Give the backbone structure.
Amino acid sequence: MDKNEVLAAISELTQSEQITKEELLNAYVSAKGISANGATGMEVIQEQEDAKHFNVSDILYYIGGAIVFIGIAVLIGGSWDKLSDLAKVLVTLGLGLLFYIIGVILSNVNKFCGVSTAFFLTSALAMPVGLFVLLNVFNIETFTAQSNMMVSLTLLLIFLASHFAFRKTVLTVFSIIFGTWLFMSATNMLFNAGDLEWKYYVYRVMAVGLSYIALGYAFSQSKQLKVLRGWMYSFGSLLFLGAAIALPGAVWEIIYPGLIFGIIMLSIKMKAKAFLVWGSLFLMGYILKITTEHFSSGLGWPVSLMIAGLCLVGIGYYAFYINKKYLAKYTEVK
């Protein structure tokens, strides 16, 4: 049966109401190997349409909000020294709160719900500056762990509560950013980071990376937050593997390949290409690092390069094989 005969048969079955649109979409989703996670074909297609909408309109909202913030910063910066303390607070923290209130109002109007994203973004960029200006007005040091902790905690509480109230992606993103900021500043204050070795910072970055991966998995269970799943996996893998490769010592050189292959196996388990991409890249970097440090002097630099090159080719084929066998048929909604 050729294509035209199949289409004619489908048309006939549709006209006689023996087959529905939902059944056709379910068959399409199943044939394409798209992971529906219990959703119907109509829901999967709608999620993909929503993702496309996010990739266009929401990005434009983000860009617009960022440009508005830059314009305000340039305008205020030109006359900053001429402003009084009260005026400085009003044009920073005051504008941030004003944009936040406008975002809240617009988010409750269906017609302008998407536009509220730009105002929430501008508010999230302006409010930290305003809070530091407020601390400075009250003669509180702004470049300390305590002040950073106060500012980040205040912002986290505001935007986390806003996330649960309005369910906007931009609010979720800034909740993660301010939460990360709070973690870094709180651990700085707790352990007096200025007196600790640089490895302390590396371990914290690894912890942040793992938390991002965990958040990505949690987001994959939510229709509204699934759009952030791939981003969290990517940033989590980058931070975790990037920090771990910087740790010195023979123990970490032995452990590190296990961490990489664990990340690559997660790509198969969670059907996320981000793990495969970053795992493969850092495996290549690890091989180059080991070759340079331990084999270049004994084998000679040209021979070491040849060995490293062959290993990279093997990794490339291995990544291609995994992608083709386990991930090629999977369509990840971002």
Notes: Confidence is low (pLDDT under 50) at residues 34-53. The first helix runs from residue 3 to 15. The chain has two domains: 36-196, 209-334.
